[in-house]
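Quick one:
INPUT:
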């Protein structure tokens, strides 16, 4: 389910998250297809085995929203029975009868919960939202019931204690460690009253997370700025005008232009609109989401979430929620994550001051020519940054787009996967999909052997969450015979008329490479046990393969073959590529500070919260940013009442730093290619595959990275990538 979905985001293009059910801290737990499950399956297609080619595929053509609740309830009940059977096994606890048995169990639950997660992120209609709201606390209670099963945990602990004296492979030992650690992490060692309270907290949190998301969605949906005069559109490119006109028409305002309260509507408006008064209006509406002191206000929801998280952390024996969340990450402690963020913060803020000075100079020059005199405010940043980009680098973003056709960039990612890792993509037909626009490719290796399936869901539609992400529908494994993986990439491009190309921005092309990096992390997985498979790795490590893949977009080989003008078919001119390259470090102050302010506030909120402190999110945000020396011209990318990454679920809470952490690895890994034979160096690619892309969570991520690179990453490459001064102290290597 949701645990399989990655909220993907390049640092340059962090994306909006969805509502999430509290992700299970356990590995896969559920029941096998017993005869009873099989008989229920006949009545409810969501429980049925996936049949057909490629190891079976989800029967999206038979999904009915009304079936979710009974299917989940049946699957959970079956799971618990299966868990009881494993727990009550009279035989001595061993790897096979306990750990492998857990891996083997729960297939019907995995099937229905995966489809539930796909619906939550891509088919989230009103009727489905009702089911989601009802099932969120029930699923939380179910995961707690598994973790709190004493007899089961006693067996896991017995296998864990004896792990060195049994003949286990390194992968099996890692799985034993992971199960044991996850159970303890989620409260398996607590006494009964503490377990009861923990479960109450988890259920209440699950409801609050859903409430937070639904409030945010409502504010994005309900606030629309309608413009009715041509003069209100001054400066907007044709594409933005067309989109705004279509948005107004679909809302019964034909003849007007609608600026929606979403990132994809706000950003181009603030970048191009010459109307400073309207820029300010759009900016204020967008950054007030969840913060309007009305029925959809999120501040009280946040205060309660913070208190409950702090109480839960104390119950589990941790100082704060942040300490609890980071226990099994690469960073390991909030202090280490903070140290990295603070090391980057100061040079990034210094760069913002330079960027603002450039913009102010330009505005002053305009004032001399007769424009009103202004001081750069937050609603001016994107607008003047774009002007500086044109003036300094002679780069017009609109000149790049005709060379970036969605389908050509898709071919480019296929080409990259083939050249680096030997993956081949062949379109399939006849496979059921959630929407007719979803397409499916079979992936094979160089010998033609089946590797997995790749589903591509490219277009925005009602009920689909915004942003872009990867999802694993089924994890690769082979401990019970070969199970090939199924992965998907999801984006929100606006569909155009049949036969017309979809032109995308450089950032969107980069995001496609990013998401496809996650997909390859799933496809190249070569492990035995599903819990250790593909992208099931630490949160602050999982963005490394995806951020790394972004770098291939800008290679001459890719641009010359795939960045072709949609009318002439000619490759993107060399001069334009050079301009893109020269401008690549432009605006890094803004991008880094906008992101990092959020990451710092996230961490500091979760370090400051206690079970009885009533934290006012707005006041906390204001004070913290003041202490940090936040430039007044920038706001957090996601202000606290809108911070879905950290309040629509636990997944990224005290974890927004992960993107920066992973980027230290990806920046350094890219330099490994540059130091060798370049982006296509086959020896480096092989080391990357053997140590990173194929290993899932079978080894510690720090060891995996050292296996690939021969040393730890340090921060020098990260600073070079962003164009910040590299600290004089040498990066730690060993
Ligand atoms: Zn990602």
């Amino acid at each position: 389910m949701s645990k399989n979905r990655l909220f993907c985001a390049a640092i340059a293009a962090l994306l909006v998250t969805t509502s999430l059910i509290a992700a299970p801290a356990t590995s896969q737990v559920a029941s096998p297809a017993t005869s009873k499950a099989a008989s229920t399956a006949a009545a409810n297609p969501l429980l049925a085995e996936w049949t057909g080619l490629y190891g079976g595929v989800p029967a999206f053509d038979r999904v009915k929203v009304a079936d979710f609740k009974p299917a989940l309830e049946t699957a959970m009940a079956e799971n618990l029975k299966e868990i009881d059977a494993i727990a009550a096994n009279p035989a001595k606890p061993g790897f096979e009868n306990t750990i492998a048995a857990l891996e083997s169990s729960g297939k019907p639950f995995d099937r229905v919960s995966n489809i539930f997660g796909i619906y939550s992120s891509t088919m989230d209609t009103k009727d489905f939202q009702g089911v989601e709201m009802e099932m969120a606390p029930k699923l939380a209670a179910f995961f707690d019931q598994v973790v709190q099963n004493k007899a089961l945990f006693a067996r896991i602990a017995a296998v864990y204690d004896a792990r060195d004296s049994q003949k286990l492979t390194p992968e099996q030992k890692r799985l034993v460690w992971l199960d044991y650690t996850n159970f303890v992490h989620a409260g398996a060692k607590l006494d009964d009253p503490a377990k009861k309270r923990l479960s109450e907290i988890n259920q209440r949190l699950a409801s609050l997370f859903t409430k937070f998301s639904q409030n945010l969605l409502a504010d994005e949906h309900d606030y629309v700025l309608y413009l009715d005069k041509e003069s209100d559109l001054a400066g907007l490119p044709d594409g933005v005008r067309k989109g705004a006109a279509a948005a107004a028409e679909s809302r019964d305002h034909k003849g007007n232009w609608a600026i929606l309260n979403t990132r994809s509507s706000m950003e181009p408006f603030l970048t191009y609109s010459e109307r400073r008064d309207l820029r300010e209006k759009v900016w204020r509406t967008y950054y007030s989401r969840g913060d309007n002191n009305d029925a959809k206000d999120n501040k009280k929801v946040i205060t309660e979430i913070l208190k409950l998280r702090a109480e839960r952390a104390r119950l589990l024996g941790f100082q704060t929620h942040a300490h609890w969340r980071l226990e099994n990450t690469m960073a390991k402690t909030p202090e280490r994550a903070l140290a990295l963020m603070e090391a980057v913060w100061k040079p990034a803020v210094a760069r913002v001051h330079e960027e603002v000075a450039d913009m102010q100079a330009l505005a002053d020059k305009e004032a001399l020519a007769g424009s009103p005199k202004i001081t750069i405010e937050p609603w001016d940043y994107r607008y003047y940054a774009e002007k500086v980009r044109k003036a300094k680098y002679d780069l017009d973003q609109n000149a790049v787009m005709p060379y970036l056709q969605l389908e050509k960039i898709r071919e480019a990612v296929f080409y990259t996967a083939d050249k680096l890792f030997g993956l081949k993509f062949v379109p399939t037909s006849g496979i059921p999909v959630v929407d007719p626009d979803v397409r499916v490719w079979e992936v094979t290796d160089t010998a033609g052997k089946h590797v997995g399936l790749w589903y591509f869901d490219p277009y925005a539609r009602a009920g689909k969450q915004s942003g872009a992400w990867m999802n694993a529908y089924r994890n690769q494994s082979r401990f019970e015979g070969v199970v090939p993986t199924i992965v998907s990439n999801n984006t929100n491009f606006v569909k155009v008329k049949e036969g017309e190309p979809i032109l995308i921005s450089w950032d969107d092309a980069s995001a496609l490479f990013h998401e496809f990096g996650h997909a390859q992390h799933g496809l190249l997985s070569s492990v035995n046990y599903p819990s250790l498979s593909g992208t099931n790795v630490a949160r602050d490590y999982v963005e490394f393969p995806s951020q790394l893949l972004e770098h291939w977009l800008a290679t001459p080989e890719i641009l010359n073959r795939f960045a072709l003008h949609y009318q002439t078919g000619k490759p993107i001119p060399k001069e334009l590529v050079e301009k893109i390259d020269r401008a690549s470090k432009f605006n890094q102050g803004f991008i880094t500070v906008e992101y990092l302010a959020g990451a710092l506030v996230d961490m500091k909120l979760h370090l400051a919260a206690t079970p009885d402190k009533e934290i006012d999110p707005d006041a906390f945000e204001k004070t913290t940013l003041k202490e940090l020396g936040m430039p007044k011209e920038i706001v957090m990318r996601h202000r606290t009442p809108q911070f879905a990454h950290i309040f629509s679920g636990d997944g990224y809470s005290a974890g927004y730093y992960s993107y920066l952490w992973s980027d230290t690895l990806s920046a350094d890994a890219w330099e490994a290619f540059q130091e060798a034979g370049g982006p296509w160096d086959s020896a480096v690619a092989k080391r990357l595959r053997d140590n990173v892309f194929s290993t899932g969570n079978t080894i510690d991520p720090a060891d995996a990275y050292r296996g690939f690179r021969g040393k730890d990453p340090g921060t020098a490459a990260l600073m070079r990538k962003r164009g910040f001064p590299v600290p004089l102290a040498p990066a730690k290597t060993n």
